[in-house]
């Protein structure tokens, strides 16, 4: 069994996934718009160009998402996506990239469990944690 996060955006899914692809080193593998689907006539006005489904491969893992129309969208709540960095340089690179126009919840810093750990909500509303664990003693 695989566990794949599925993010829902309020009209900014394409922009978010292109940003993640560029800054997290992913590759978008599947992309469908509402307007090109068999349900095109059922999508809200102005949503034909919005994302019905996107799938991106990130270092052997899959991140998926879509746009959730207007009143059905209530933001991303109750979770964070956690990125495990292999070293301090990678942690800093990831955190700095995601920090663009973000709300920093905890600056990237050393903790008792990590060489670097930080939390933020990116410009698209996605909550992230960046963690570079300390090596085993």
From TrEMBL:
Q: Name one Pfam family in it.
A: 3-dmu-9_3-mt
InterPro entries in the record? Glyas_Bleomycin-R_OHBP_Dase, PhnB-like
Query: PhnB-like domain location, by residue?
Result: 2-130
Recorded hits in SUPFAM superfamilies, A to Z, give: Glyoxalase/Bleomycin resistance protein/Dihydroxybiphenyl dioxygenase
Q: Signal sequence: where?
A: none
Q: Where are the transmembrane segments?
A: none
Identification of the protein by name? VOC family protein
From which organism does this entry originate? Answer: Undibacterium terreum
């Amino acid at each position: 069994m695989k566990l794949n996060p599925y993010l829902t955006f309020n009209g900014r899914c394409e922009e978010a996934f292109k940003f993640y692809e560029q800054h997290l080193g992913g590759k978008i593998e599947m992309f469908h718009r509402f307007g090109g689907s068999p349900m095109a006539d059922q999508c809200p006005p102005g949503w034909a160009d919005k994302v019905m489904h996107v799938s991106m491969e990130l270092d052997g893992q899959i991140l998926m998402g879509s746009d959730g129309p207007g009143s059905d969208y209530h933001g991303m709540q109750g979770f964070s996506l956690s990125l495990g960095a292999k070293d301090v340089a990678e942690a800093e690179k990831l955190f700095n990239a995601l920090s663009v126009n973000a709300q920093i919840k905890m600056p990237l810093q050393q903790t008792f469990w990590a060489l670097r750990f930080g939390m933020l909500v990116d410009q698209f509303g996605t909550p992230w944690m960046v963690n570079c664990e300390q090596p085993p003693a």
